[in-house]
Amino acid sequence: MRIRFYDRWPCLEIHQAVGLASNRTLGTGQSGCRLTPGKGFMRQRLIQFLRVVRPEGGESTIGGRKIYILPTRYGLVFGVLLITLLVASINYANNPAFILTFLLTGVFIQAIFHTWRNLLDLHLHWQQADPVFAGETTFFHFQLHDPKGRAHYTIQLGFNEQDTVVAPCVDEHRKIVKIPFLSRQRGRLNPGRLTLETRFPLGLLRAWCYLETEAEAIIWPRPMEGQLEQTEPADEGSREGDRGVGTDDFTGYRGYRPGDSLAQVSWKALAGEKGLLVKQFGGDRVSQLWLDFDALSDHGTEQRLSILAHTVQTLSSQPVHYGLRLGDLEIAPGDGDSHRLQCLEALALYGESS
After folding, report:
1. Does the pLDDT value for residue 163 go beyond 90?
2. Could you say which DSSP state residue 264 is in?
3. What is the mean pLDDT of residues 216-220?
4. Secondary structure of the chain: what % helix, strand, coil (to 5)?
5. C-alpha dihedral over 72, 73, 77, 78, to 10 degrees?
6. Is the pTM of this model over 0.90?
7. Residue 55's closest CA among 163, 180, 183, 142?
8. Contacts of range 15-20, beta carbons closer than 8 Å, 24 or more positions apart
9. Is the pLDDT of residue 305 over 60?
10. Is residue 122 within 8 Å of residue 209, measured between CB atoms?
11. Which of 105, 110, 241, 333 is the right S-S partner for 283, CB 3.0 to 4.6 Å?
12. Distance between CA 351 and CA 354 in Å, rounded?
């Protein structure tokens, strides 16, 4: 028996499980082996019939018909207790026992409604995801809110077989929720369906729903140390020392610009409330290096990308301009955090079909 809510009112619905024959033939290979469905196959078939909340205009809204609800283990124990109390009340014709039984039954029925209502009308909007290296945990940022301003408590959010987070939504203001996902390989990561569930207020019932999201994350290659045959460093810029971006004699300060290295920021000036200033040095000659994917011919594709990712991370903390040649893609030499992110994203998406 499954309790499901239609529109705004709860109803009871009886479901009879229909099993798949274990000897059903899915296909025959050249060896004549018969393939039978396993747990994974039946799970995928059953998922096709689930009611899933899909985004509209970039935002997902949980309706009443998308929420599933079933008793928890404590709810089942509570139900057995109610039946025991009812039998005892009838057996002994004890009026106080009848009152207690009906009172607890009313509490259970009210808990069904409030557990279901705790997910109703929640709005979820995906914002962004943190790019990380393969093997690290990325966080998907979602906005959670109820435009009606109704409070929602102990909402648990998580992707399949991943860690979950618990977040309340107590007013109409948008709350940022960061949901973790452990990455395994580089490229675009699609986390799949998001599950929202709650056991509020008594823990006797579990209500949940499934959401399709437009979320995706960029996963960089896992850094790996390796010897990279770089082109010989070349000096670029003027040789006359005209207040450039070199590392010679100190000449003064200038205002901070996005992409400037944090190593050149004058933290002492910032502490003195003089604003965010960057140190300038005489001479704008800096080393220029090219990182070439084809120069690592002795390694496999993933190893090449991992070595290049490690090199990009290393050079980003040095006063060096570096460029990247990746097949037909060529990124001009540069520095700064934006240049680092551009190179790492190119490495992450290498080989992706357009």
Report:
1. yes
2. G
3. 95
4. 25, 35, 40
5. -20
6. no
7. 142
8. 20/45
9. yes
10. no
11. 241
12. 9
Strands (E), 33-99: 52-53, 59-61, 68-71
Cα 285 to its chain centre, rounded Å, is 42
Task: Using alpha carbons, select from 331, 296, 320 the residue that is nearest to residue 224.
Answer: 296
Which residue ranges make up each domain of the chain? 1-12+41-215, 221-237+285-354, 249-284
pLDDT band for position 287 (cuts 50, 70, 90)? low
- Residue 260: phi and psi, rounded to 5, are -65, 145
Would you say 204 and 111 are in contact if contact means Cβ atoms under 8 Å apart?
Answer: yes
Q: Which two tokens stand for residue 11?
A: 């109803």
Look-up of token digits 């010989």: 232
Place of tokens 């078939």: 45
Contact yes or no for 123/144 (Cβ under 8 A): yes
pLDDT of the residue at 248: 53
Q: Pull the structure tokens for residue 264.
A: 């050149």
Instruction: List, in sequence order, every residue forming a beta bridge with 329; answer none if it has no partner.
Output: 326
87-98 confidence digits (pLDDT tens): 999 999 999 999
CA quadruple 141, 146, 149, 155: dihedral positive or negative? negative
pLDDT digits (tens, 9 = 90+) for 6-64: 444 444 333 333 333 333 333 333 334 444 455 566 666 666 667 888 888 778 999 99
For residue 350, the tally of other CB atoms under 10 A from its CB is: 19
CB atoms within 10 A of CB 286: 20
pLDDT at 298: 81
Provide the token pair at 222.
């896992």
Query: What DSSP line would sit under 135-164, residue for residue?
Result: TSEEEEEEEEE-TT---EEEEEEEETTS--
DSSP state of 248: S
